[in-house]
Structures are given as structure tokens and as C-alpha cells.
Amino acid sequence: MIFGLILVRYVVEGLEESMDNDEILSEVARTYARDGVVLVRNFLDLRQLRVLVDSLDYARANPGPMSTDLSSNEEDEFFIDFLTFRRNPYMKELCTDTEILKKLAIIVGTHEIRMFHDAVFVKSGDASPTPWHQDRPHYLIEGENNFSIWMSPDDVSENESLAFVPASHKCEKIFHPRSFRDASEINDNSQFVTLTEDIFDELATQGIKVFNFKAGDAIIFDNRTLHSALRSRELAHRRAISIRYVGDGAKLTTNFIDPHPPLHHMGMKLVDGGPPSDVWFPLVYSQ
């Protein structure tokens, strides 16, 4: 679902310095709080970038029970897999990297970080774009400090990158998600609302942020922020990992649609408003 708005290029220029610089981290944190999304240049060092590549290679060679290919023909690929960190040693190393987690805690403004799950995306050929959506409707967890970090070992041009509606995480609405296969609305939850073009226009008065992504960068975003993945006329070739974490104040919820991953069907006891358990949401960082 692509609405007819002009895409505004947004590249964070002043963040090329070492991410160990407290002043730089504070600037990133302010942008994240305001927009619900921020691009950080050179977020990964060479070792972490190598682990990212190994994580993707292992995940693609060892697809799990939640993996699927959303492409419509054999020539193209839109491979997705979830929750690979429990069997992928490289993914586990990446998800629990203390250097990464320390920076994320400062940017997001959380004292604790718990692992939720990871998602692997591999697109090739004429793979379709993804419609405008929030991640939150697919999650059985809610809160003010739940977020994702999106990383790729490849440069991703603006024409193939992620696009975001800045500050949409503050709209206090949860929208019906749309199928990644055909963009049809999934509307079997009366507590969610339809993302109409009028609502979209109202939320996007500041324009749309599209990031010119370089290998080693990271996009960090709130799971309530509206976003989509663009597609150009050229053939796609994009590998990415999105690691989903939960921060301070996270609670379980029964208010979801088509949850990914469906932890309540895998043995987790789902109590609405209950705390995330250490078994299903292991604590990976605490200040």
C-alpha cells in the first residue's frame, strides 16, 4: 500500500564519528525520541559486520519451521525466517553483543533490554515491496520502549531502502496490518483501525524519511513507527536482519493479529498485562 506522497530524502550526516562519543549518542537519542526512527552511520565495526554476514549465511542455509518465501514465482525470492537466534550461533552472538546493546540502551532510553526475536529478510529478482505497516500489531508484547535494529551487510540505495513516517509512533493508534504477499488488509481485530489515505496524509505532514543505507550502518526504530520497504524497477538483491528487543515497562498482550513469532503456541503462557519471562524474553543487557 503506497500512498501518493513525495519521498523526502533523509540522511543523518553528523553521525560519522565514533559511537563511543557520549555527545553523539545523545544526539542520536534525541532524534530517536522525536521521530521513532534513526539511522546511525558506522554502527557496526568490522568484526560485527562479519558476524552479521555469517548470521545471514547460516540462516539461509538452515531455514527453520517459521521460514517462508513470499515470492510469486520460482525466479524471484522473498525469504523470511523468524526466531533463528536459538539455533544460529552467529545470530546469538550478534543479538547479545554487549557493545551493540550498550549503545542501543542509550539511544532508546531503556535500562534493561530483553531479547524478543530476530527476523531474516532476503530479497532477489522482482520481489515485491512491503506495504506501510507497524510491527506492533504482530507482537504479543507492548510498551513504550520496544524497538528493532535493522542491519544489512550490503549498501542499500534509497530506491530499495526502508521508508518511515517520522513521529508516527506517537499517534496512539494501532493499524490493521497488511499482508506482505498481496498487501490486503488483515482486519480481524476490532481494536485496531484502518490506515486510510487521509490518516496517512495527516501523519506524514513532515514528509517521509528514506535512508541511503551503507554496510555497517543501522536503522533503529520503535515498533509502532509506520514504515515500508521500497522497490525500484531494477532487480532486487537485499539481505537484512532485524533484531527485535523489548525494553523497560514491556508487558504481554492479547491484542494482536497474526503474531510473529507465535510464542503462545510454542509453550509460553500468555497472560494479558503480564511481565515477559526470562525463558521467552531472556535479559541480555542491564545497566
Describe this protein with a few key phrases.
19% helix, 5 helices, alpha+beta, Jelly Rolls, 287 residues, globular, single chain, five-stranded mixed sheet, eight-stranded antiparallel sheet
Structure write-up:
There is one protein chain. The protein has five helices and 15 strands. The protein has 287 residues and is of the alpha+beta class. The chain has one domain: q2cbj1_9rhob like domain (Jelly Rolls, Sandwich), CATH 2.60.120.620. Strands 2, 3, 4, 5, 8, 11, 13 and 15 form an eight-stranded antiparallel sheet that branches. The protein has a five-stranded mixed sheet with strand order 1-10-9-12-6, with no helix packed on it. Strand 3 and strand 4 form a beta hairpin. The radius of gyration is 18 Å and the shape is globular. The termini are far apart.
